[in-house]
User: What shape does this take?
Amino acid sequence: MRVLVTGHNGYIGQVLDPMLQNYGHEVVGLDTFYFEGCQFDESPDGSSTIRKDIRDVEAKDLEGFDAVIFLAALSNDALGDLDSGLTVDINNSATVRFAKLAKQAGVGRFLFSSSCSLYGAAEGDDLLTEDSPLNPVTAYGKAKIDVELELRKLANDHFSPSYMRNATAYGLSPSLRIDLVVNNLTGYAFTTGEVLMKSDGTPWRPLVHVEDIALAMRCVLESPRDPIHNRAFNVGRTEENYQIKDVAAIVQDVVSGSQITLAEGASPDTRTYRVNFDRISYEVPTFMPQWTVREGVEELYKAYKEHGLTAEELDSSKYLRIKTILAHKSGGRLDDKLRWS
Assistant: This one.
């Protein structure tokens, strides 16, 4: 297929883009490049690029594509807390507008990168399915729900959206993020000797490697239409639900000499949920996730050592998305609407 990947220069995109190309798809990337230069490793070669803010895209930019994989977003709760209005503007309004233009341009498939964070503060001990109640506690999670609801209205015989509710990501990417819990805990353990938990460790999270997220997107893209048309899919493995304290214990075991510590003021996190991933394994049988959290921690630890990651880098704007944005703003490169000056 000829596929447009928005946000292709980001954490997931720099893993997904070469994977799609390796399986014979023609890939074009579209990105505003907020995080250009924030590389842990060399960015992959290959896809042609449209350098554009998704808020400025026109229908003519989307003509000739068989599918869109939509990754572009303000990428975490910290950015949402910076200005919830911007999260609505970019993650919701601009995304829905983009999907309408894609439909107008004749794009057949639209894979939306959603999130398990829309389950938010779950009640009870049951594993959550795609049909469970949604209870987001952040602007980021709420925007994901709102977009899914709007995309459902667009679905018809010619426009087929799918909603990829990714578990919390971890793992190595050329565009590394260390504001993700497994990446962060491993980074602190390696650079400081402390497995620094910023909550009391009791919240539950489903966790999934970035390569398995990319794999799920490729498999849904290549799936027959009926099983995936206008449907949500939790992306991960049911056995990969963890309490944060258990992740910390894995990190302590892998990173020699490290010790678990609690950050000052660490308290329970309101976001806690466990998720069931049976639907995607049943409806998209080609998706067979490969990674466990332990394997991901081992991968990260090895890469951090080879890179020579320092504590200064760990806490810098290079790998923390919110700090990158704030540095652009303070330097006058981005305005208050996060548009390039």
Q: What stands out?
A: The longest strand covers residues 259-267. The chain has twelve helices and twelve strands. The CA atoms of residues 233 and 280 lie 6 Å apart. The first helix runs from residue 13 to 22.
